[in-house]
Write a structure and sequence with these properties.
alpha+beta
């Protein structure tokens, strides 16, 4: 992952919080849950997404993920958009849910859910518990925002800032899931 920042500019975590709270910020900074996931999976993918390069919506992995997300637990959850920055699913018992088709990329999914919990706590002032669900595997995991998880989220925010403000993408790295990535052609067709 990206190394820690060494310059004297404002800490990206503080910049994000100030932006989210609508405080005066010269250069607003926003992070979405998907950016958290991309950061954990592949910083190059994050860089492309931050430049609004449209993913291949017909990609098999994208289609499968969308189908699972749209059909799982639909009778027990509702979609909530907060500040136009994050979109979360809330279960009828108040827990925040993140649905993924498989547990093969559990760390990115967990980081995304933890970011939602962090954002709710830090920006909205609401503490919630989370549920990471993999309905095709019939697995569910309770996720809580501990001090350690808070540090993980805040380091990821700093890393996301470094990646997204860079003038060029990180170098391509061959990873086991590159073949199924919606940005595959951006990395490997040249």
């Amino acid at each position: 992952m990206t190394e820690s920042r060494t310059d004297n500019s404002e800490d990206p975590v503080e910049k994000l919080l100030r932006s989210a709270r609508d405080e005066a910020v010269n250069d607003p900074f926003h992070v979405t849950g998907v950016m958290m996931q991309y950061y954990e999976v592949c910083e190059r993918e994050l860089w492309f997404a931050s430049r609004h390069l449209e993913i291949d919506r017909d990609n098999t992995a994208v289609v499968r993920g969308t189908q699972v997300d749209e059909s799982a637990y639909d009778d027990k959850r509702r979609n909530v958009s907060i500040d136009g920055t994050i979109a979360i699913d809330v279960l009828d018992d108040g827990r925040v849910m993140e649905v993924k088709p498989t547990s093969s990329l559990i760390k990115p999914a967990k980081l995304q859910l933890l970011y939602y919990l962090w954002y709710l706590d830090q920006v909205v002032g609401v503490e919630r518990e989370g549920v990471l669900a993999h309905p095709t595997e019939r697995k569910r995991e309770t996720v809580t925002l501990t001090d350690e998880n808070t540090r993980w989220v805040e380091e990821a925010i700093r890393g996301i800032y470094d990646v997204t403000t860079s003038d060029s993408p990180p170098p391509a790295e061959e990873k086991p899931f590159c073949e199924s990535c919606a940005y595959h052609d951006f990395c490997w067709s040249c």
